[in-house]
Design brief:
GO terms for molecular function: DNA binding. This protein is of the alpha/beta class and 339 residues long. The chain folds into three domains: 35 residues; 47 residues, no CATH class; 169 residues, Nucleotidyltransferase, domain 5 (2-Layer Sandwich), CATH 3.30.420. The protein is built from twelve helices and seven strands. The chain has a five-stranded mixed sheet, with helices on both faces. A two-stranded antiparallel sheet has the order 5-6. Helix 1 runs parallel beside helix 8 and helix 2 crosses helix 3. It is globular, with a radius of gyration of 24 Å.
Amino acid sequence: MQTAEEVMEIRVMLKQGKSIREVARELGVSRNTVRRYARGAAPGYKARPPVARKLAPHAEWLAERVRRAAPEHLSATALLAELRHRGYRGGLTILREHLAALRPAEEPEAVVRFETAPGDQMQVDWAVVRRGADRLSAFIAVLGYSRAAYVEFVSDEKLETLIACHQEAFVYFGGVPRTILYDNMRTVVVGRDAYGPGQHRFQPAFRDFAHHAGFLPRLCRPYRAKTKGKVERFIRYLRDSFLVPLTTRLEQRGERLDVVTANVEVRKWLRDVANARVHGGTGHVPAERLVEERPALQELPRPWPGRLSTGTPAAAMPAPVLQHPLAVYDALLTTDGAA
């Protein structure tokens, strides 16, 4: 039986126009398996293989032994001899498999910039502007090919907020990418490597939303922010070019940045600055490259009809009512016009 995540991947790839043969080849499953889930078969769950029973009593000792030896690697044969003295009666193969899971993969020294084809990838992350009761966060999405960016300020990072921001980003870009890259957002993934290395358990409602919208969620490697470097670099650019100038300007007037003001300002900044500049990585203007990329994006989906963990239909979630004195907008527009 395939996991719910594997079934989602099969169905999304079919939705993206790939043939049953292509999906089976890329995922390493039979064509009959693809056909079964394309017809609506329910997924099952594969239990993650536990540590071998004979090795289980020594698991903590092994983890500490490997940690203390890092960055040097201890050979499995050398550890086997030590384990024999501790009473281990298992084999070398089990030990090697366990050690492979404990040791981090080798990383190349140089980081090579990874480029994607139009419509292939979007990178998403949160940037926390302010914590506490008056929280302010920024949802940030960057298309891999064009580097076109979308930013939305919110007062929380809940699942319903994340999904709503995705839908707004798709509208802003004019379509849906085939894959979206995340880090370990708890609203996206609830079990990293839950079914084995690289086989993650996604948050059920978010998984259903991804299936509905037609994109494949992907996770970057732990502690490797450079895996999604496009959005990470944009976050730094957002802080330096937008947030710091705006917050200091407001503070001089005795005002505090809030959700409404931030979103009024960021839309203009995206239009006139961020997506209008020549991007240092591509040498092109993101807004102009977005015109090239848009035909490669998938069609905008209908509103997601799914349910959140609370049981509330997504379509029934009330939109926040944001009220703000009109004088604020007048002041912002006046300031922009004079700049």
